[in-house]
Amino acid sequence: MSLSHLELLPPVERKSDGSLPRMNGRQRQRAVALIRKLCSACDNGNCLYLDDGEEVPCPQTLSYSVCCKVFRWVLLKDEAGLELETELFGKDAAKRCAICGKAFLPGSNRAKYCDDCKIIAQRRQKAAYANRHRAESRKIEQRSP
After folding, report:
1. How many Cβ atoms sit within 10 Å of the Cβ of residue 135?
2. What is the residue range of 74's domain?
3. Are residues 19 and 83 in the same domain?
4. Which of 12, 33, 30 minimizes the C-alpha distance to 21?
5. In whole angstroms, what is the distance from residue 106 CA to residue 112 CA?
6. Which of 9, 46, 75, 113 could bond to 55 as cystine, CB 3.0-4.6 Å?
7. Pair (122, 71) in one structural domain
8. Within this chain, do residues 109 and 134 fall inside the same structural domain, yes or no?
9. Virtual CA dihedral for 84, 85, 87, 89, nearest 10 degrees?
């Protein structure tokens, strides 16, 4: 992502009083780990977007406020940051998949599985139904001579 792409990102939303959203200590630890793992603009703790010839430390790793556009609109939208985004902004309630435990955004309030596990769960349920149905039909055949 180049500097011109950074300008296309919307600004970080603010609270009704005009302040930036704040993280607690645990959330900040998870945010810093996410930045170090996934952020393409972070080079050994320095922000490449703010670099103008000398090294500038990444402000998001130093602050408890959500102040970086890349963190807000790119990293938190990633699968790894989805749960943290839900905690911080609480807009879309993420759920945990009943099979793999991965966080996902449900399409309805009845969703239990992520997209990857949904197919597996449907196959299991269909097989269980077919087995029950076959067992019942065998019982009926054995009763009627």
Report:
1. 10
2. 3-91
3. yes
4. 12
5. 8
6. 46
7. no
8. yes
9. 160
Helix (H) or strand (E) holding 5: helix 3-8
Give the pLDDT confidence of 92-134 residue by residue, as tens digits.
567 888 999 887 878 888 999 988 999 999 999 999 999 999 9
Rg (CA), the chain: 23
Q: How many domains does the chain have?
A: 2
Tokens of 85: 């985004």
The answer on 99 and 59 residing in a single domain is no
Rounded to an integer, what is the distance from CA 63 to the centroid of its chain?
Answer: 21
Q: Are residues 83 and 138 in the same domain?
A: no
Tell me the DSSP string of 64-87. SB---HHIIIIITTSGGGHHHHHH
Provide the residue-wise pLDDT of the chain in tens; the chain has 145 residues: 455 677 777 887 787 788 888 888 888 998 888 888 888 888 888 888 888 888 888 888 888 888 888 888 888 888 888 778 877 776 656 788 899 988 787 888 899 998 899 999 999 999 999 999 998 888 777 776 5
